[in-house]
Amino acid sequence: MFDLATSFRASAARDPSAIAIVDEGVRLSYRDWLSRIEAVARGLAALGLRPGERIVTALQNRWEAATLHWACQFAGLVITPVNWRMTGDELGFVVENAGARALVTEPVSHAAGDAVDAAGLLRIGVDNAASAGIGFRDLAGDGALPDVSADALSLMLYTSGTTGQPKGVPRRHRTERAAAIAHVAQNLYRAGERTLGVMPLYHTMGVRSLLAMSLIGGCFVCLPRFDPARALGLIERERITNLYLVPTLYHDLLNHPAFAAHDVSSVRKLGFAGASMTDGLLRALDGAFRPDLFVNHYGSSEIYTFAIDQDAVRKPGSAGRAGINQRLRVVRIGPGDPDAQVAQGQEGEIIADAASDEAFEGYWRRPDADARAFRGGWYFTGDTGYLDAEGDLFVTGRVDDMIITGGENVSPVEIESCLSLHPAVSEVAVAGLADERWGRIVAAFVKCRAPVAAETLDAHCIASGLARFKRPRRYVFVTELPKSPVGKLLRRKLVAGDYALDPSCLSGPSTSREPNP
C-alpha cells in the first residue's frame, strides 16, 4: 500500500488544478499545495527533526494545521495533534508522554505552550513566532525528503481522557490510508467533493475528512472553530457537498435562526459519528436537507470503522452492519471472553476484530490498557449494544454509563431518543443518580425549547411505549448540557451536579416522581 506522501503526490498528479484547500483568503490547488507541503517538510527536517520523532500541534482547523499534517507524512514524522484549548499541565503531559521533539502553537494556545518545560523541545509558532523564535512561515529547506514506508507511524491521537489521563493511539500510514479509503467508499463520495473541515484535526473524524478529500481530488474548506452562522455561510458560498459532523453540531446548525435564510441545497450527503443521534434530530435533519445519503458511522480513534448504516433514517438508532474492513460481535459484559456471544436482541459489549486494516496495534506505552482492550484477537470497545432480528447493530451506551436501577439494566440512549421527540425538548441527556433504595435512579436532564412539566414528559414516555422501569424518575431542567470540545456529552458532569438549572423551563410544580414498582 502507498504511504501517505506517495498517495498525496499521486492525487496531485491526477488533479493538479483542482482546489485542494480553502481558508479565508487562501485557495490552493493540489499542485500549489504539494509545493508548500514539501517546503514545510524540508523545513522540519532542517530543524533536525528525524523520521519517527513526534511533533505535537495545538492548532485550530486552519490551512497551516492541515499543511503540517501532510508535511509530517512527507518528512516521516509522527504528527500528534491535541486540543488547542488544553491547559499547560495537560499539554505538558502529552509532550512528555509522547516524547515529543517539537511543539507547534498559535496565539490561542501560545500560553499553554509557554507553560511546557521540556528540555530540547523545539517551539514553532503560527501567526507569530513562539518562545523559541521559529515561525511557521520561516520553515524551509532544500534537502532530499526521506522514503517513508507504509508501515511507518503516521499519527498519534490522544483519547479524551474522561476517566483518567489520555492515552496515545499511534496509527500507521497504511491504517490511515485504509481508513480514508473506507470513508470514501462507505459515504459514496465522488470525485471533486467539497467538505466542511470543522471537525478538529486532533479528532479522528477531522483527520478522516482531510485524508478522504485528498483521495478524490476533493476540497477541504477550513472552519477554525465551529460557529453555526459561519458554517452556514461557507456551505452556501463554497457549495459544500457533504457534511460529516457530531450530532451536537448538526443540532446547532439546524436550530440557528439564520438556517432558513441560507441555501444548503449543495449538500447531498450527511454523515455523523462520535455519539448517537436522537430520533427527533434525525428526522429534522432529513426534512431540512433531504439528502441523497444519510450515514451513521460508528467507530473510534483506535479502529476507525466498526459499523456503517447508509440509510440512518430507515431505522433510527441503528448503526447498521460491520464496515468493509471489519467483523463485529456482541458478547456478555464482564468476562472478557470474545466467544461469549449473546443471543439476538440481548444487550452486551460490542467487540471488533483487531486484525482490521483500519486498526491500531496498541496504546502508546500503556501495556495495562492493551491488556484490558485486547482479548483473543478482538478489541473490546467498552460500548454496549445488541443485534436486532435483521442483524443490525444498535449501540446503547457505554459499559460505564449503564444504569442499574432496582436490579434492572437501563441504557440512556433509548430514553433520550424517546424524550427528544417531544416538541418542548431541545436536547436531553439521561444519567443514573445515586439512590438509597434503588441503587440508582434514571434522571433526565432537559434543555427545553418551551416550558413543560415533568408530568407531561412522563406521560409522553408512557404514550411512546417506554417500559415503566426505564422511565425517568427525576427531571432536571438545565440551561446547557455539558459537552467536550468536539460535542460529546459528558454524563459524569451531570452526575457530579456540574450544571445550571433553568427554572423558566418548568411549567408545573414537580421535577420528580416516585419510582414505579
From TrEMBL:
Q: What Enzyme Commission number(s) apply to this enzyme?
A: 6.2.1.-
Task: State the source organism's domain of life.
Answer: Bacteria
- Cite a single GO MF annotation: medium-chain fatty acid-CoA ligase activity
Q: Which SUPFAM superfamilies match?
A: Acetyl-CoA synthetase-like
Top-level EC class, please?
ligase
InterPro entries linked: AMP-bd_C, AMP-bd_C_sf, AMP-binding_CS, AMP-dep_synth/lig_dom, ANL_N_sf
Sorted UniProt keywords: Ligase
- PANTHER family recorded for this chain? 2-SUCCINYLBENZOATE--COA LIGASE, CHLOROPLASTIC_PEROXISOMAL, ACYL-COA SYNTHETASE
Q: What is this protein called?
A: Putative fatty-acid--CoA ligase
